[in-house]
Design a protein that fits this description.
mainly alpha, 17 helices, globular, single chain, 413 residues
Length: 413
């Protein structure tokens, strides 16, 4: 299995090279150090005592925050947010009011993140991570800072840290920034997956940290740098705070969190309904051919992604099931993928479950392409066309970065 995972890393780098716009400009330094950083980070967190302590602390911290969010939910929504009351009234399977639970968690984490950003704590963490990656991989200051920010922030929030440089960024840097957004998830939704779907928070945070260097190396293979970057020397300007104090930051974060929660709910409503419609149409067509199935889309996606699942080191018996889950993430959202993963956890090998948890940890789906083009395009309208041109390539790059993280974890398990 370990050999297969190593083969998977080589294969994914090969796929990225086949997609490269300049195949002769292979970024050997970025690839070598990117893979090295991935292995080191994975080994430290998963295989050492300090890393295990950090992993467990993260789990406990997220659990504590979820309990805090539940208190707010109970105040606002009364018995609808009380799991015990709902279970008694409607049964254990209906104990959680999904929309209310995710709203409370997202709003709280967004509020705390905004406060940390106001006081400079978040920027300090981001710049520390960015410094390590820039010194080793040789990437520019702006793209590295954005990649590091995506570990803690969302795909449209991280670019705010490099807003002054967006108009002058090279095509390669724009692509790199977008790949970083697709290869990781935001801290606000991380709490939702951990609290509602019982995905271990430590795995989610570890996945985002490991995928940051993977995003840099994959993006530099697909669109190598051919121009001179404004931040090639590594220096980036500090962004002025838009909030005046901690209270203002908390209010701003709460407002942004509510917008995000509504967006998540709307996306899930739309895409779940859309999949049902696509399955019906496909089912009608396949029934004429004598193939009766209620989920043809998931089955087709499973066959398409099963080879990638195998390359990560997932046991053969689980490859089709995990392939379907990976496919759902691409067409729908990573939330739907994690929902399917949690529902199938009992039937999957523990190794398959852990690897899939890492491979799913990213915003690499078609809906996010529109989100990034719209969100980042609003920050820099002059580059909207450039963002649209590299959008799909960046999503594929983010997908490959997530799969690389799955391969590294498959080797370490």
């Amino acid at each position: 299995m370990k050999f297969i995972s190593l083969l998977g890393i080589v294969a994914l780098i090969g796929v990225a090279w086949l997609l490269s716009e300049h195949k002769r400009r292979f970024p050997f330094r970025a690839v070598l150090w990117g893979v090295t950083l991935q292995f080191f980070l994975g080994w430290f967190i998963l295989k050492t005592a300090p890393g295990e302590a950090l992993f467990n602390t993260c789990q406990q911290l997220v659990s504590r925050f979820i309990s805090f969010a539940n208190e707010g939910n109970k105040l606002m929504f009364g018995p609808l947010a009380n799991e015990a009351v709902m279970s008694k009234a409607f049964g254990p399977e209906n104990a959680l009011f999904f929309a209310l639970v995710i709203t409370g968690i997202i709003v709280l984490i967004s509020t705390v993140s905004s406060i940390l950003y106001h006081y400079g704590v978040l920027q300090l963490l981001v710049r520390a991570v960015a410094w390590v990656m820039r010194q080793t991989m040789g990437t520019s200051g702006s793209e590295t800072l954005s990649a590091a920010a995506n570990i803690f922030m969302g795909q449209t929030e991280a670019p705010l840290l490099i807003k002054p440089y967006l108009p002058g960024m090279t095509r390669s840097e724009l692509h790199c920034m977008m790949v970083g957004g697709f290869a990781t998830i935001a801290g606000s939704v991380m709490g939702v997956y951990s609290g509602l779907l019982k995905v271990p928070a430590g795995h989610l945070l570890t996945a985002s940290v490991m995928s940051a260097p993977a995003a840099l190396l994959i993006s530099k293979i697909i669109i190598p740098e051919t121009q001179v970057s404004e931040t090639a020397a590594g220096s980036t300007a500090k962004i002025e705070r838009e909030t005046i104090n901690g209270i203002d930051a908390a209010c701003s974060g709460a407002s942004d969190g509510m917008k995000l929660a509504i967006n998540v709910i709307a996306m899930l409503l739309a895409f779940t309904s859309l999949v049902a419609a696509v399955n019906w149409f496909l089912g009608q067509g396949f029934s004429q051919l004598g193939w009766q199935t209620q989920q043809p889309l998931q089955i087709l996606l499973g066959y398409a992604n099963a080879p990638f699942a195998w390359l990560m080191g997932i046991p053969s018996k689980d490859c089709l099931a995990v392939g379907q889950i990976l496919g759902e993430r691409i067409v729908l959202t990573e939330f739907v993928g994690y929902l399917s993963l949690s529902q199938q956890q009992a039937s999957l090998d523990p190794r398959s479950y852990v690897i899939a948890t890492y491979a799913l940890c990213g915003f690499a789906n078609f809906g996010s392409v529109a989100i990034q083009i719209g969100g980042i395009g609003a920050l820099v309208p002059s580059r909207r066309k450039d963002l649209a041109q590299v959008g799909i390539k960046a999503m594929v790059g983010g997908l490959l970065a997530c799969y690389m993280t799955g391969c590294v974890v498959g080797f370490l398990l």
